[in-house]
Each structure stands twice: as structure tokens, then as C-alpha cells.
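Annotated sample (chain length 982).
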Amino acid sequence: MLINMVNKDLFANHWTRKEQKPTDAAASMARSAPPTAPVAVAAKPTRATGDWPLLTSALVVCRECLPAGGGSLPHVTRQIDAFLDTFSRKEALAAACQRGDSVRALFYLFARDPRPFRQEMVRGAARGGHIHALQWLTEHDDGSGEWDLWKDYSFSPMDEAAKFGHFEAVRWLHENIADSHSWRAMNWAAQNGHLELLQWLHDTRQDLCADYAMDFAAANGHLEVVQWLHVNRQEGCTTWAMDGAAQNGHLEVMQWLHANRKEGCTEVAIEGAVARGHLEMVRWLLQIARSKDERQWWELARSAAARSDHREITKWLDRDPADDEVVELAHTRRIPNMAKELLARVGGSGGGRLSFSRNAGRWRLNPSTSFDNAVLREMPVDPEPQNFVRSAVVGACFSRITPTPIASPELVIASQAPLALAGIELLEEAEGAEHAETQPLASLVPFLAGNALLNGSEPAAQCYCGHQFGFFSGQLGDGAAVYLGEVVHEDGLDRWELQLKGSGLTPYSRTADGRKVLRSTLREFLCSEHMHALGVPTTRAGSVVLSRETQVLRDVFYDGHAAMEPTAVVTRIARSFLRFGSFEIFKDTDKVTGLAGPSAQLEDKPDRLRQMLDFTIRQYFLEIEGDGDDPTKYERFFAEVVRRTAKLAAKWQALGFCHGVLNTDNMSILGDTLDYGPFGFMEHFDPKYACNTSDHTGRYRYEAQPEICKWNCGVLADQLELVVPRDRLEPGFVAFDGVYEGEYMRLMRQKLGLTRREGGGDEDEELVDALLNVLTRTGADFTCVFRCLSSLNAFDSVEIRDQAVNTLVGLSETLEQQKRKLEATSGGLSAEQYEMVELLLKESPARARQYGITPELFVQMTAQRKAKAALDATTDTQRLETVRTAWRDWIAVYIARVQRDGDAENEEKRLNQMRRANPVFVLRNHVAQTAIDLAHEGDYAGVQHIFDLLMHPFDEPLDEDDRRFARPQDPSTAPLCVSCSS
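Output written by the structure step:
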């Protein structure tokens, strides 16, 4: 019956239209573009099947019967064999490869046409991103074909996979197919907005080029990709970047390119914007044209309008130009003082990039997004309907709750891009007026505060445990954070978890109140987005909402000086907030602390852990998913978590970032920076820098972060032993060091502009070690030193080099600063107290240990006393000369290294690359505190301005007054301290 229902003509017609026709927009763009310009083509949905219908009974049976065990249906297969002709057999197998049909289905079709494999099968499997199909093809190709299946082709499998964003398929091809070549992988990744894939190709495939990548990304509106390419690649862009962005109406991309690039645009931009009816783009372009006195653009616009049917544009062009606003529509990254004053008069935000006005903006829900809360559907959920604090929530990963409202919430700041990931679009008043479904921005605030819920939200709190400061602490969980749901975009793959932090009590609040205060939420907001701008994997932050009426009691330094503070709520967005501690809920009673996970006593806990792992792999690690019964998937999952964690730690170290609380409950399973508490960016270099005043032992100090991250991976391995023997996890675990060291040296070479790609490994490591040694001895500012080196031309005169040395000396700690720091770390023991400690340790070691005094601590105290004595015997002049000599000697070695592998002609290019790797701005504690003080005073425009600086960390400030935010804290002021209080 199935066979009689199949129309063979349909089959034949289908294969005459394999490739999608370009969209009208793409076709129009192609006609208007110069011959060499890239064409913006809409990305095909990653797992779309609409272009591969089930056209034959063979495909119906393979898809519907075989996976269910119906492989032995002789009466059906006989009819299939009679029905399939030679043409349809080979096309069916190629189609099965692209669809990613099961291995059983591939075998079934191959058995009916066991002739040599063809390139269409490779192309199909690569396009679909189906690793199991690619692997099957490699395993069963006997080499009898007319061509080499992988090498002698007119296309690139890697390009095909990259075109549709199949990151893991690209990685598989790179790792498993010798000499896997690519012509356009980077361009495809950029064109379709696949930033993570683009970054991986940049790091891994140094043979690839990205000649038109920025053009493609700009034409398709991928601003983050454009920004990343600007910072990390040399190719730059052509005028087509702005021309394409203008034709497609990507105003924010245009504004950014105008502010950051010099290529400009051509007449194609204004003509295309008019032809396609992008009024705001036309207005912006013509305001820029007026500022440059390019009056011919007005004539071009009127001529294009006469040929189109866009009456709004025609009407606007015919009005009196004198009616225009004086202020441009945010075409600069940061706004000079005069523009700030003008904005204040017209009610603008006063911030840098006016992507929306906090007071006058509008918002809407993206109609192509919806909630699909898979984590609650597929992970164990607490059956208790009431929200009250409990010490042990057994057998559950999540508990359903309801956020607690705050009084009179007000919006402090919002970030447009991460909210868009969650389906919330922020619009300017004028832009919002074009959409009937938009609402005033004030109506969004209750949702951001937790006072109201978006349709489809299912608030819940996650249950997890954790090792805190090295000791298992039992059940922890989301004590103040609330999962709202998972927002899925129309392709079904772009999924983001939306969360509120500080919205009230949960079952996991323990003795706390479920609230957060302004200082902690604003710090988390600023640092989350800043780290993203720096290129570090991180959770995102969408907004901060404040209530001055709902207040809570907090003791900032746990010293008895508690005070009332206003509450605040921060919106967080991530692909997932699952963490190492999520898998510790089954941990047996700890021998040291006597605590156990809440689900430790469940008899079926191995099955429950498998359920959690299977969901995590299926949802967030598609490259590992494979067949459901793959016996190695848990080991591969663990190895991937270790790899991501190692690379993340390397990025922290290269930036001088200190997390502060690297407990296992603060370690993301996805390798993102998670939970910004008492973090710090190092100023005056000290490898023992501990940013958290609550970290009395220095466990989470800067130099220890990589080893702590590895230790946490070991804790995760301990939990996975419930379902995987430890010896099978060990290879993934021991790989940490190699991954970390390789990534760290790659980043340090970028920061130092060491461009040689082969050899020099040991030499470069010695150079980096020597630099860290000089930084330690001089106490120079970590960020400023690397930025200074980014301006040091290795081929300039000796006099210029000496000026650089003087600058580095000025960035180093003074003698007084060194003494003050040593005094603070040594505890300020007098000679008599030191002798008493020494005597106690000799005569009563057990009693000394009760006071926390160990032989190791005494050795450290002795070293500090010797260092202090040496400083006391040093004069300011001697200290200055010591510092100068240290920098002069290292600079000489560094210059020689650069000169040997470089040349004067390409030196400026090298320095530009360094400037894109070494930020001007990092979120120093004094910068964060300034933003907090401004927010307390209600100066949200000032907060926005600081935020804008942090979102452009590699740009030199336009306003000299902003340079104070790029320097270490004034040494004459009291040092700022941060703790776990939030």
C-alpha cells in the first residue's frame, strides 16, 4: 500500500531543485553588488528537513520501521527492491546521509546498492552535521570509487558543515580526516553568525583566511561577529560591509562600523537602503552625509525613492531638512561632552551607544521565540508544591517556586544584546512606533523584577551541592536565583535559559533571605557583559532593577557593622546554569564534614545520574550525543568539560582576572564564567593576589586558579564514578594541564605580539616567565603593562625604547606601596610577637596548630619578615634603579625576539594585533565602586557611560577624563575590599 502511494514523478522533480533558490532580498543584493562583493544569503535552518521530503517507500520504511526494530519485514523489502531503480537507490542513500538517518537505515540502503560511495553522500552528511554518518562513510568506504571520497572533490566537506553551523562536525572533520581542507569555512561561519565556530577555526586552523568574513557578517547583521573579527583578525573588511548592512537595514552594525572602521561605504548603501524601505537607515546615512557635506547623497536618495514605492521615505525626503535634530542617531561609540548635553535636553540616556533610551524606549517580545522548558520536562522535579526552606530536597534537580515581588522597582541599566537572546527586544521610541505590538519600557520592569511573569515562564530553583573552600558543604542550591524558563528561537536550536537573581526565598535559601543588594547585582551585571566583550566565555546579564523601598540587612565584611541596603534583581542569561555541583546531589556522606548529598540514599541514584547526564549531553553537547547506547559518551562528556574548563582558566590568567570563589557550585558545566561575586581584575601584579577578603587562606588566589579548576574537575570525576569507572575518566582528567598550557601560551603570544607560528616554544615560555618575574618584582599594573607594550615599536630608536622603559617604571609600585602591601599580608607582627610564635611552635606544636600556626605558615612569615627588612633598608632611589634595570633588561630580550622574526614594514600590523588582545579598560574595583555610587545617587546615565567603556575595552577613550577608569586605584585612597556578602 505504501508503494502505491508514492509518486515517482515527485522524486524526479525533487532532484532537479536540490539547491534552494536565493531569497528575493539576496537576489536583489546580488544584482546591486559589485562583481567581487560577497552576497548575503539567508542561513538554512540547521536541522531543516523540508528540503528532503520522504520521497520513496524505502525512506518511509527506513525512517519509521527500522529504528523501531522492523528491519526484518521481508514482504516490504521485496517490494522496495522491486520499486527502487538505480537512480533512486543512490539518491536515497545520499538523502539519508544528509538527514542523519540511523546507522541501521544507512546499512539498509547500502545493502541494496553496494557500489562505491559518492561525494554527494559526504556533502549531505556534512551539510546535516551528522557525525555518525560521516564516521560510517569512513569506516565502510573501501576506496573502490572513481575518486578519493575525501580529497579529490570539487567541494569542501568542512565548508559544507560550517555553512550550516555544525561546529562539532567541523571539529570531527579536522580531527579525523587527514588534510581536511577548507576554502570558505570562516566566511560561512561569519555570514551565518556562528561566532563560537569562527573562534574555534581562528584558534585551530591557522591556514584559513577570512577575506570577506566581516563583509558577510555585517551584511547579515551579526554585530558580535563583526566586533570579534575586528579585534582578532587582520583581514578587515571592504566597503561592502557597510553597503550590505545598509541595504539590509542593520543600523546598529552600521553605527559600529562607522565608529570603528575606516573603509566607509559607497553609493550602494544609500540606494539600497532607500530601495528596501529602511527609513531609519536612510535618515542616519543622510545625517552623516550632511556632516561631511556630501550633498549628492540626497539626490541619490531622492532618485532611488522615485524608483521605489516607499512613501514614508519619499515624504521624509521632501520635508524641510532644517527640522532635523542636531544630534546624530548614535553614530559614535561614546558621545563627547557637547553631545551629552544635547542628549540631556532631548531626554536621551546620556550613555555611550544609544541602542535604546532607558526613559523613552519601548520593548516587545520577539514573535519568533517561545518558551520550551526542557530542563523541567526531562530532569527530576520536586513534587512539593509549597515554597519553603528545606535542608534536604530528595530526588529532585529543581523545585517549582514563585518569585517574591519588590516594591516600586526602577530600571538601573539594561543590555540589549543578551535580552534579545531571551526574546526581549529593546527599541528606541521612534523605532518602536513602527511596531504596533511594542509597549513602553516601563511596562517591562515588573517582569525584570520578578513582580510579573512572561507567558510560558515556569519559575523554579535548582538543587545542587558543592565543595566550598575545599570541603563538601552538602545541599546548597539556588538560594536567591530563579529559573524562569528556556527561550527557543525559531530554528529550534538557539536556546537560552532566563534567570532572575535576588527575587526572593526558595527551598534552598537556608538561613538567607533570597535577596541581593545593588552593589553585588551591579557588579555581576557589569562584569558579565564586560567579560563577553573581552572574549571570555561567560553567562550574560540583561538588566538590573532596584527597589529603594524593599531593604535588607547586610554585614559587608562580617565584622558586626550590619546596615540596611536597598534590594536589587539582576537578569541572567546562559545556555545553561548547570554546574559541577549539580551532579554532587548523590554524594555519599563525606568523611571530613559528615555531610551528604540530599539524594545520597536513593537506591536508584545511578539511574538518576544517567538521566541527568543523558539530558545534559543531548541538550548541550550535541557533538557527543551519538547513538543512545554509546558506551563511551560519559567519558567523552567529562573530557570535553575538562577541556573547556582548562581553556577558561587560561583566559582568566591571561587577563589577570581572579574569580574569588571557585567552589564546585560556581563552576559551569559548559565552561562559562559563572557567579560573579568577590571577583577582581589584578592591578599591581602579585601572583598571590586573592581578591576575596573572605578567602583567609588564599586558596583561590590568582596563581592557584588553574590548579583549583583542575581539582574541581577531579571532584566532578568522583561523582561520575557512580556510572563510569574512574580509570576510564582519567585520560580526560590528565589532559587538563596540556590544554591549559597550550591555550595560555597561545594567548600570551598574542598579548606580546609573538607572531611566529612554528618553533620558539621553549624560548617564548622563558620570555613569558621572565616577564611574570619582572612583574612580581616591580608590582607593575598588569593591564597597563601589556597596553604599554602594544605601543612599543621594536624597530624604533633607543631613545623611544627608553621612553617605554620610563613608562613601565611609572606603572610599577613605589617603595611605599610595596611596604604597605607587605605589611597588610604579613599581619604586622612585631619582633616580640614573632618570637612568641616561634617559641610556641617549637615547644607546643599541637597547641600552635589550634591557633592555625603550622610550620609552613611560619616559613612564610619568616620570608615576609626578611622581605620587609630588605625594603626597610632600601631607599627610594635604590628602589627606582632596581625597577628600571629589571624593565630595561627584559625589554632588551623582548625587542631582540620580535626583531628576529619581524620587520619594520609589518610592525604596525603586529602592534594593532596586540592592541586587539590587550584591553585599555578592565572592571577594576574602583571603577565598579564608582558605578555603584552613581547608581545609589540615581545617576543612571553615569552608570551607562561606565558600562559603555567596559563594552569597548580595547578602544582608547575619546574623553581624557575617562582615562581614570583605565588606571589603578589612586594609592592615596583607602584600598577597596570585596567579600562574599551580597
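Annotation: Residues 1-57, 60-73, 85-89, 320-357 have pLDDT under 50 and may be disordered.
Annotation: The chain is about 45% helix and 10% strand.
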